[in-house]
Amino acid sequence: MTRTDPGRSIAQVVPAVPSFSVDDGFSYAIPEGMELAVGSIVRVPLGGRRVRGYITGIRAGDAARLKEVIRSSSPVPVFDAQILETLRAIAVHYVAPLPVVLAKSAPPNLPGTPRALKLPPVPDTEESPLPELTARLAAHRHGRSHYLLGRRPWDDTVAGLAGPLLAAGRSVMVVLPTVAEMETLGDTFEERFGGRLLRASSAHDARAVTAAWSRAARHPGHIVVGTREVAFWPIADLGLAVMVGEGRKGMKEKSSPTIHAREVVRRRAAVERFGLVLAGSVPTSEIMASGIPIVRVARTRSWPLVEVVDRNEE
After folding, report:
1. Contact 53, 60 (CB under 8 A)
2. Is 59 in the same domain as 21?
3. For residues 146 and 138, what is the distance between their CA atoms, to the nearest angstrom?
4. CA proximity to 181, closest of 222, 137, 225, 151
Protein backbone atom coordinates (compact mmCIF):
# COMPACT_ATOMS: atom_id res chain seq x y z
CA MET A 1 0.00 0.00 0.00
CA THR A 2 1.55 3.31 -1.08
CA ARG A 3 1.83 6.07 1.50
CA THR A 4 2.29 9.72 0.69
CA ASP A 5 5.78 11.19 0.53
CA PRO A 6 7.24 14.47 -0.72
CA GLY A 7 6.95 13.17 -4.31
CA ARG A 8 3.27 12.26 -3.99
CA SER A 9 1.17 15.28 -3.27
CA ILE A 10 -2.03 14.86 -5.28
CA ALA A 11 -4.89 12.50 -4.45
CA GLN A 12 -7.51 11.34 -6.93
CA VAL A 13 -10.74 11.21 -4.96
CA VAL A 14 -14.05 9.66 -5.99
CA PRO A 15 -16.81 11.42 -4.02
CA ALA A 16 -19.41 9.23 -2.36
CA VAL A 17 -22.12 10.48 -4.70
CA PRO A 18 -24.29 7.87 -6.51
CA SER A 19 -23.62 9.24 -10.00
CA PHE A 20 -21.66 8.09 -13.04
CA SER A 21 -20.43 11.67 -13.46
CA VAL A 22 -17.92 11.31 -10.62
CA ASP A 23 -16.50 7.88 -11.57
CA ASP A 24 -13.19 9.39 -12.70
CA GLY A 25 -12.86 11.35 -9.47
CA PHE A 26 -11.32 14.75 -8.87
CA SER A 27 -7.79 15.86 -7.99
CA TYR A 28 -7.08 17.34 -4.58
CA ALA A 29 -3.88 18.52 -2.95
CA ILE A 30 -2.73 16.51 0.06
CA PRO A 31 -1.84 18.78 3.00
CA GLU A 32 1.67 18.45 4.33
CA GLY A 33 1.94 15.81 7.03
CA MET A 34 -1.31 14.02 6.13
CA GLU A 35 -0.74 10.32 5.45
CA LEU A 36 -3.10 8.84 2.91
CA ALA A 37 -3.23 5.69 0.76
CA VAL A 38 -5.35 4.15 -1.94
CA GLY A 39 -8.59 3.27 -0.18
CA SER A 40 -8.44 6.01 2.45
CA ILE A 41 -11.74 7.68 3.34
CA VAL A 42 -11.47 11.45 3.31
CA ARG A 43 -13.58 14.60 3.44
CA VAL A 44 -13.24 16.94 0.47
CA PRO A 45 -14.93 20.12 -0.76
CA LEU A 46 -17.35 19.58 -3.66
CA GLY A 47 -19.80 22.11 -5.02
CA GLY A 48 -19.90 24.16 -1.85
CA ARG A 49 -20.32 21.10 0.37
CA ARG A 50 -18.01 18.81 2.31
CA VAL A 51 -18.52 15.23 1.22
CA ARG A 52 -17.02 11.82 1.89
CA GLY A 53 -14.70 10.44 -0.76
CA TYR A 54 -12.50 7.45 -1.51
CA ILE A 55 -8.91 7.83 -2.69
CA THR A 56 -8.31 5.84 -5.88
CA GLY A 57 -4.82 7.09 -6.67
CA ILE A 58 -1.90 9.21 -5.44
CA ARG A 59 0.56 10.89 -7.76
CA ALA A 60 3.14 13.64 -7.94
CA GLY A 61 2.38 16.90 -9.66
CA ASP A 62 1.76 20.59 -9.34
CA ALA A 63 -0.93 20.98 -6.70
CA ALA A 64 -0.76 24.76 -6.41
CA ARG A 65 -4.19 25.38 -7.94
CA LEU A 66 -5.99 22.43 -6.38
CA LYS A 67 -8.29 22.44 -3.40
CA GLU A 68 -6.97 20.53 -0.42
CA VAL A 69 -8.26 17.37 1.20
CA ILE A 70 -10.01 18.62 4.35
CA ARG A 71 -9.20 15.66 6.55
CA SER A 72 -8.65 11.93 6.71
CA SER A 73 -11.68 10.22 8.24
CA SER A 74 -9.86 7.04 9.29
CA PRO A 75 -6.28 5.78 9.29
CA VAL A 76 -7.45 2.45 7.86
CA PRO A 77 -7.96 2.19 4.06
CA VAL A 78 -11.09 0.28 3.08
CA PHE A 79 -9.54 -1.22 -0.07
CA ASP A 80 -6.16 -1.49 -1.76
CA ALA A 81 -5.08 -1.29 -5.39
CA GLN A 82 -5.93 -4.94 -6.07
CA ILE A 83 -9.42 -4.76 -4.59
CA LEU A 84 -9.93 -1.46 -6.43
CA GLU A 85 -9.24 -3.29 -9.71
CA THR A 86 -12.04 -5.72 -8.88
CA LEU A 87 -14.41 -2.96 -7.79
CA ARG A 88 -13.89 -1.11 -11.07
CA ALA A 89 -14.57 -4.30 -13.04
CA ILE A 90 -17.73 -5.00 -11.02
CA ALA A 91 -18.98 -1.45 -11.60
CA VAL A 92 -18.52 -1.87 -15.35
CA HIS A 93 -20.05 -5.36 -15.43
CA TYR A 94 -23.20 -4.32 -13.54
CA VAL A 95 -23.37 -0.81 -15.05
CA ALA A 96 -23.22 0.78 -11.61
CA PRO A 97 -21.72 4.09 -10.47
CA LEU A 98 -18.24 3.45 -9.10
CA PRO A 99 -18.90 5.25 -5.77
CA VAL A 100 -21.78 2.85 -5.06
CA VAL A 101 -19.50 -0.15 -5.53
CA LEU A 102 -16.57 1.37 -3.61
CA ALA A 103 -18.82 1.86 -0.58
CA LYS A 104 -19.49 -1.88 -0.39
CA SER A 105 -15.91 -2.57 0.71
CA ALA A 106 -16.28 -0.24 3.71
CA PRO A 107 -17.87 -1.12 7.08
CA PRO A 108 -21.05 0.64 8.28
CA ASN A 109 -19.04 2.92 10.62
CA LEU A 110 -15.54 4.29 10.20
CA PRO A 111 -13.00 1.47 10.72
CA GLY A 112 -10.78 1.42 13.76
CA THR A 113 -7.39 0.00 14.66
CA PRO A 114 -8.00 -2.79 17.18
CA ARG A 115 -4.97 -4.13 18.99
CA ALA A 116 -3.73 -7.57 18.10
CA LEU A 117 -4.96 -10.36 20.34
CA LYS A 118 -3.25 -13.64 21.06
CA LEU A 119 -5.09 -16.17 18.93
CA PRO A 120 -5.87 -19.63 20.30
CA PRO A 121 -4.10 -22.62 18.76
CA VAL A 122 -5.80 -24.24 15.81
CA PRO A 123 -7.36 -27.57 16.83
CA ASP A 124 -7.07 -30.74 14.81
CA THR A 125 -9.69 -30.76 12.08
CA GLU A 126 -10.98 -33.26 9.57
CA GLU A 127 -8.69 -33.95 6.64
CA SER A 128 -9.01 -31.45 3.86
CA PRO A 129 -11.06 -32.71 0.88
CA LEU A 130 -8.46 -30.95 -1.29
CA PRO A 131 -5.16 -31.63 0.55
CA GLU A 132 -2.90 -30.53 -2.29
CA LEU A 133 -4.73 -27.22 -2.65
CA THR A 134 -4.72 -26.40 1.06
CA ALA A 135 -1.02 -27.26 1.32
CA ARG A 136 -0.22 -24.88 -1.55
CA LEU A 137 -2.31 -22.09 -0.10
CA ALA A 138 -0.85 -22.54 3.38
CA ALA A 139 2.59 -22.11 1.80
CA HIS A 140 1.47 -18.84 0.13
CA ARG A 141 1.32 -20.48 -3.30
CA HIS A 142 -1.57 -20.12 -5.72
CA GLY A 143 -3.98 -22.98 -6.43
CA ARG A 144 -6.73 -23.58 -8.96
CA SER A 145 -10.37 -23.00 -8.03
CA HIS A 146 -12.51 -26.08 -7.31
CA TYR A 147 -16.17 -26.97 -6.87
CA LEU A 148 -17.07 -29.47 -4.14
CA LEU A 149 -20.19 -31.44 -4.98
CA GLY A 150 -21.94 -32.61 -1.83
CA ARG A 151 -24.71 -32.05 0.65
CA ARG A 152 -25.17 -30.21 3.91
CA PRO A 153 -23.93 -29.95 6.60
CA TRP A 154 -20.68 -28.40 5.38
CA ASP A 155 -19.03 -27.67 8.73
CA ASP A 156 -16.57 -30.59 8.67
CA THR A 157 -15.65 -29.94 5.04
CA VAL A 158 -15.06 -26.22 5.53
CA ALA A 159 -13.13 -26.84 8.76
CA GLY A 160 -10.88 -29.28 6.91
CA LEU A 161 -10.19 -26.68 4.24
CA ALA A 162 -9.59 -23.85 6.71
CA GLY A 163 -7.52 -25.62 9.37
CA PRO A 164 -4.16 -25.81 7.55
CA LEU A 165 -4.35 -22.16 6.47
CA LEU A 166 -5.25 -20.90 9.94
CA ALA A 167 -2.39 -22.94 11.39
CA ALA A 168 -0.06 -21.20 8.91
CA GLY A 169 -1.27 -17.78 10.09
CA ARG A 170 -3.41 -17.02 7.03
CA SER A 171 -7.04 -15.93 6.93
CA VAL A 172 -10.08 -17.67 5.46
CA MET A 173 -13.38 -16.22 4.22
CA VAL A 174 -16.59 -18.28 4.22
CA VAL A 175 -19.64 -16.86 2.42
CA LEU A 176 -23.11 -18.33 2.96
CA PRO A 177 -26.46 -17.39 1.35
CA THR A 178 -28.59 -16.81 4.48
CA VAL A 179 -28.21 -15.40 7.97
CA ALA A 180 -29.56 -18.62 9.51
CA GLU A 181 -26.92 -20.76 7.77
CA MET A 182 -24.21 -18.26 8.70
CA GLU A 183 -25.23 -18.36 12.37
CA THR A 184 -25.41 -22.16 12.40
CA LEU A 185 -21.92 -22.52 10.94
CA GLY A 186 -20.68 -19.70 13.16
CA ASP A 187 -21.93 -21.44 16.30
CA THR A 188 -20.14 -24.63 15.26
CA PHE A 189 -16.91 -22.79 14.48
CA GLU A 190 -17.14 -20.85 17.75
CA GLU A 191 -16.55 -24.14 19.52
CA ARG A 192 -13.78 -25.22 17.14
CA PHE A 193 -11.83 -22.03 16.50
CA GLY A 194 -12.83 -19.78 19.40
CA GLY A 195 -11.29 -16.32 19.14
CA ARG A 196 -10.24 -16.86 15.53
CA LEU A 197 -13.85 -16.64 14.39
CA LEU A 198 -15.32 -13.39 13.08
CA ARG A 199 -18.88 -13.32 11.79
CA ALA A 200 -20.97 -10.67 10.10
CA SER A 201 -24.23 -10.23 8.25
CA SER A 202 -26.82 -7.59 7.48
CA ALA A 203 -28.72 -8.78 10.57
CA HIS A 204 -25.90 -7.69 12.90
CA ASP A 205 -25.75 -4.14 14.22
CA ALA A 206 -23.37 -1.65 12.64
CA ARG A 207 -21.02 -1.57 15.62
CA ALA A 208 -20.51 -5.34 15.64
CA VAL A 209 -19.97 -5.50 11.87
CA THR A 210 -17.46 -2.63 11.98
CA ALA A 211 -15.55 -4.31 14.82
CA ALA A 212 -15.36 -7.58 12.86
CA TRP A 213 -14.34 -5.74 9.68
CA SER A 214 -11.59 -3.80 11.48
CA ARG A 215 -10.09 -6.90 13.06
CA ALA A 216 -10.28 -8.93 9.83
CA ALA A 217 -8.63 -6.14 7.84
CA ARG A 218 -5.79 -5.55 10.30
CA HIS A 219 -4.90 -8.95 11.76
CA PRO A 220 -4.42 -12.25 9.85
CA GLY A 221 -5.19 -15.71 11.16
CA HIS A 222 -8.98 -15.33 11.39
CA ILE A 223 -11.83 -17.23 9.78
CA VAL A 224 -14.50 -14.75 8.62
CA VAL A 225 -17.98 -16.29 8.29
CA GLY A 226 -20.67 -14.11 6.80
CA THR A 227 -23.33 -13.48 4.21
CA ARG A 228 -22.71 -11.96 0.78
CA GLU A 229 -21.53 -8.60 2.20
CA VAL A 230 -18.17 -10.02 3.35
CA ALA A 231 -17.23 -10.85 -0.27
CA PHE A 232 -16.07 -7.21 -0.59
CA TRP A 233 -14.06 -7.09 2.65
CA PRO A 234 -10.31 -6.51 2.63
CA ILE A 235 -9.04 -9.36 4.79
CA ALA A 236 -5.46 -9.49 6.03
CA ASP A 237 -3.43 -12.26 4.31
CA LEU A 238 -6.51 -13.87 2.78
CA GLY A 239 -5.53 -17.34 1.64
CA LEU A 240 -8.85 -19.00 0.82
CA ALA A 241 -12.47 -18.08 0.13
CA VAL A 242 -15.19 -20.71 0.43
CA MET A 243 -18.66 -20.12 -1.00
CA VAL A 244 -21.41 -22.50 0.07
CA GLY A 245 -24.44 -22.53 -2.21
CA GLU A 246 -23.05 -20.17 -4.85
CA GLY A 247 -26.21 -20.50 -6.94
CA ARG A 248 -28.66 -19.63 -4.16
CA LYS A 249 -30.62 -16.39 -4.54
CA GLY A 250 -29.23 -15.07 -1.25
CA MET A 251 -25.85 -14.62 -2.96
CA LYS A 252 -27.27 -11.91 -5.22
CA GLU A 253 -28.28 -8.45 -4.09
CA LYS A 254 -31.98 -7.74 -4.40
CA SER A 255 -31.75 -4.07 -5.30
CA SER A 256 -29.81 -2.42 -8.10
CA PRO A 257 -26.99 -2.98 -8.75
CA THR A 258 -27.83 -6.69 -8.42
CA ILE A 259 -24.26 -7.80 -7.78
CA HIS A 260 -23.63 -11.53 -7.33
CA ALA A 261 -21.14 -12.37 -4.59
CA ARG A 262 -19.78 -15.23 -6.70
CA GLU A 263 -18.61 -12.86 -9.40
CA VAL A 264 -16.96 -10.60 -6.83
CA VAL A 265 -15.04 -13.43 -5.20
CA ARG A 266 -14.07 -15.06 -8.49
CA ARG A 267 -12.66 -11.78 -9.75
CA ARG A 268 -10.87 -11.10 -6.49
CA ALA A 269 -9.35 -14.58 -6.42
CA ALA A 270 -7.94 -14.06 -9.92
CA VAL A 271 -6.49 -10.65 -9.08
CA GLU A 272 -5.32 -11.26 -5.50
CA ARG A 273 -4.23 -14.86 -6.11
CA PHE A 274 -5.99 -16.47 -3.18
CA GLY A 275 -7.71 -19.86 -3.36
CA LEU A 276 -11.40 -20.31 -4.12
CA VAL A 277 -13.57 -23.32 -3.31
CA LEU A 278 -17.27 -23.36 -4.20
CA ALA A 279 -19.55 -25.93 -2.61
CA GLY A 280 -23.07 -27.09 -3.21
CA SER A 281 -25.37 -29.89 -4.34
CA VAL A 282 -25.69 -28.65 -7.94
CA PRO A 283 -23.24 -26.34 -9.73
CA THR A 284 -24.71 -23.47 -11.71
CA SER A 285 -24.41 -23.21 -15.47
CA GLU A 286 -21.87 -20.41 -14.96
CA ILE A 287 -19.62 -22.75 -13.03
CA MET A 288 -20.08 -25.57 -15.52
CA ALA A 289 -19.16 -23.23 -18.38
CA SER A 290 -16.10 -21.89 -16.54
CA GLY A 291 -14.34 -25.24 -16.54
CA ILE A 292 -13.73 -25.27 -12.77
CA PRO A 293 -12.97 -28.87 -11.69
CA ILE A 294 -15.85 -30.55 -9.86
CA VAL A 295 -14.79 -32.82 -7.00
CA ARG A 296 -17.38 -35.15 -5.55
CA VAL A 297 -17.39 -35.46 -1.77
CA ALA A 298 -17.39 -39.08 -0.58
CA ARG A 299 -20.72 -40.92 -0.64
CA THR A 300 -22.39 -38.16 -2.64
CA ARG A 301 -24.64 -38.93 -5.58
CA SER A 302 -24.45 -36.72 -8.64
CA TRP A 303 -27.33 -34.44 -9.52
CA PRO A 304 -30.03 -36.12 -11.70
CA LEU A 305 -29.98 -35.91 -15.47
CA VAL A 306 -32.04 -33.12 -17.00
CA GLU A 307 -33.67 -33.68 -20.38
CA VAL A 308 -34.58 -30.63 -22.46
CA VAL A 309 -37.54 -31.31 -24.72
CA ASP A 310 -38.39 -29.09 -27.69
CA ARG A 311 -42.17 -29.41 -27.94
CA ASN A 312 -42.21 -27.57 -31.26
CA GLU A 313 -41.37 -30.90 -32.83
CA GLU A 314 -44.56 -32.52 -31.57
Report:
1. no
2. yes
3. 16
4. 225
